[in-house]
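Complex record, two chains
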Amino acid sequence: MAVPFPSEAFFQALAAAMAQAHDRFRALGFFDATIGIGVLPDAADGDARLFVLAFEVFECTRAQEVASLAPSDVDVILEGKLGAWREMFENIRANGAADVAHSINTLTHFGETLTLRYDDPDGHDKLYRFAESVQQFFDLAATLDGVTYEAAPRRTAPAA
Amino acid sequence: MSYLSTKDFLDDKDFVDRWQYTLRSGELDLSWMRAATKDAVCAPQNARRGLTFRDLDVPGYGYSTMPDLARENRSFAPRGAEIPPGCPDLQAEVNRKSEVWAYNIESYYEEAMSRQWNATTDVPWADLAAAELPDDIARAYSQLLTFLTEVEMIATDVPAKWLGRLNADFFEVKNFMATQVMDEARHAEVFRKRALTTGYGLMRASPANEVNLKFLRDADSFSESSTTLHLQAEGMVLTLFRFSEYISPTDGDKKLFRLVMQDEARHVGYGMQHLKWILDHFPEKREIIHKHLDEAENFVFGGAYAVEVMEPFIILSGKGMKKENIEQGCRITAQFQVKQVEEYFERLEKCGLPERKDRSQLYKALELGHANLEAMGLRTH
C-alpha cells in the first residue's frame, strides 16, 4: 500500500523497513543519533511538517510527527522544501538508492537543496559519524510499495 | 637488544626446580588466588548493545573513580589487578588522566569497534574499475587521492606513536587510539587502492603538507598532539571528505567517502570531548594549546591552500578544465574553504575556546575567504 509523504506513516514505514533489514544495519554498526526532519511548503503560505527520527543501536526507535522542533531538541535537523524531498525520494525509488546527485551529504553540503540546522557541532558531526547508516535508511524508500505526495493528514503531534 | 633480564632463568636452579617439582608433584602454590582485588559482577545494561566498557565501570575496575594522577601503576598491569613487587617501571610518559581523557571515551571505542569496515570488500571496486573518467578529472582525482594517502599515513603514525607512551591505566583511551590506528591505516589503503584503479596511479607528493604533517607528529605533549590531530587536522579533513563526497564522480566513490567520513567524524568527536575534558580538568593547558594552535594554523594554511591540493579541488568541483569549469570550480572551492575554517572555529567555541578567534591568524584568513566569496557574488554569512 502506498504511503503519503510527508507523514508519520511514511517515516514509520522506513523504520519498519529498517527493522526488516536488521542484518544489513547491524553490519554497519551502532547508530545512535536523533535527527529532525523539516518538510517546508513549496509555496509561501503552506505549513511545515516536522518529524523526529531517533536511532539507537541498530534500530529506529522513534519516527514521530511533532508540533515544534528546535535544533536543541535533536542532534541535527535536515530541512528542505517538499519539492526537494520529493525529488530525492523519487530518485531513490527510481534507482534503488540515491544517485550521485541525491545523496544526503551532496544535497546538504552547501545548503542549496537541503539545509542543516544544529546547536552543537558534535550533533552536526553525527550526520557524518553515521553517514552510511543515514544514507541507507533513506534509501529504504526504494523498498516501499508506493509513495504519494498528496498532502497527508497531520497527526496531532507532541512537541519534540 | 637494550633491555636484558636480570637473570638467566635456565641457570636459576630454584626456578627450574620449582617448575619441575610443580609438574611432578601436583603441589600448587596458589598464592595468586588470594590476589588483593575486588570481586566484580558485570552484565550488559542493554542486551542489544552487548557488554560494553560502560558496563565494566564498577568499583575497583572502573574509570569513573580512577584518580587523575596514575601514581601506582607503572607497569602493564591491567587497571584493577594486584600489582606485586617486580613489575617493571615502563616509564610511561603520560600519567595524568586529564591529559588524555575524553567525555564518553568508552562509547567512542564501542562505536569504533562496531563500525569497522573493510576497504577490500566494502567498496564496489568492480564498478569503480569499469567507470571511465575524463583525462583531466582522472588526473585531478589521482592527485587528490595521492594527497589523502599521504595525510592518512601520518594520521596512522601519530596515535600509534602515543599508544605505548600512555599509562596502562588509561585502557579505554589506548583502545580507542588502537581503533584509530586501524581506521587511518584503512584510509591510506583505500585511497591508494582507488588511486591505482583510476588508470593514472599516484601523482605528486605535497611538500607543504608534509611539513604540516611532521609538525603534527612531533607535538610535545599528547594534548597538543590531539588538539591538532583530532580537532584541527581531522576536523578539516572531515569537511574535505564531505566535499569529496559532494564532488565524487561515481556512486562507488560516494560510498568510499561516506565510509571514511564516518571514521573521521568519530575521531573529531573524541578530539572535541578530549579538549573539553582538558579545559575542565587541566585549565593550565589552555595557553599551551593556544601556543600550539598558533603554529598549527600557520602550517595548515600553507598546506591546505597549496596548489597541488587546491587545484584538483577546482578541477573536480568545476567538472573539467574549460574556462567556465574553472570559474565554477573556483566558486565552489572558495565556499568549501570558508566552510572548512568556519566549522573548525565552531568546534573550538563549543569546546570552550571561544577566544581562539581573537588571536588566530587563520581567522584572519577566514575573513579573506569571506572577501573572496563576496567578490564572486557568493554568500558571506
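Note: Chain A has a mean pLDDT of 94.
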